[in-house]
Amino acid sequence: MYERGEVVALTAKRKRFADEYLIDLNATQAAIRAGYSKKTAYSSGERLLKVVEVQVYIQKRMAEKDDELIAKQDEVLRYLTNVMRRAEFEGVVVTLKKHKSYYDDNNKKIIEDSEEAQIVEIPTKVSDSNKAAELLGKRHGLFTDRMKLEGDLEFDVR
Predict the structure, then answer these.
(1) For position 2, what pLDDT does the model report?
(2) Stated pTM of the model
(3) What is the three-class DSSP state of 14?
(4) pLDDT at 21 over 90
C-alpha cells in the first residue's frame, strides 16, 4: 500500500467525494453526487470517510475555509481603528421626493410627484466610534480600575 509518512494523492473520484461532502457534510449524498452507486452510497460514504487521505484532505479544506471566513486579530484591530477614526462608512436609505409641474400642449397644468429610494454613505456614528475606542483601549490596557481596600489583617510570621 504505502509507507508511513508517504503522501498518497487522492483519486479524482475520492477528491470529488470530499469536495461534495464539504457542501453539506452528508456522506451519502456526497457519494451519490461524486458518482458512486445510489444502492451503496451509504456504505461507500461511511467507508470513504474512514480513508486517511480523504480525512486529511477534508481537514485541510476546512482549515482553509476557516482562514477565509474567520477574522484574524489584526483584521479586527484594523477595523476597530477605522471605526474609531470614522473612516468606515455605512449605507443609509433615504427617500428623495421629486416634484415636477409643467403645462401640456392644451395649457393644462400637469403635476407629477414621485419618490425614489437612494442609499447614501455616511461616516460611522459617534457612539460607534466611542465604543470602538473603548474596545481598543481595553485591548491595549489603557484603562485600569483602581479600588481602595481597607481592613485589618493579621500575619503569622514564623
Answers:
(1) 43
(2) 0.45
(3) helix
(4) yes
**Rounded to whole angstroms, what are the CA distances from 36 to 16, 26, 31, 68, 107?**
11, 14, 5, 30, 77
Rounded to whole angstroms, the Cα distance separating 51 from 31 reads: 14
**What nine digits make up the cell of 141?**
490596557
Q: Quick one: cell of 59?
A: 481537514
**By the 8 A CB rule, do 13 and 34 touch?**
yes
Closest CA to 18 of 51, 42, 43: 51
Q: What CA–CA distance (Å, rounded) separates 34 from 11? A: 12
Task: Write out pLDDT tens, residues 61-107.
Answer: 988 887 777 778 888 889 889 988 988 888 889 999 998 998 988 88
Q: Rounded mean pLDDT of the chain?
A: 86
Could you tell me the three cell numbers for 53?
487521505
* 8 A C-beta contact, residue 120 and residue 92: yes
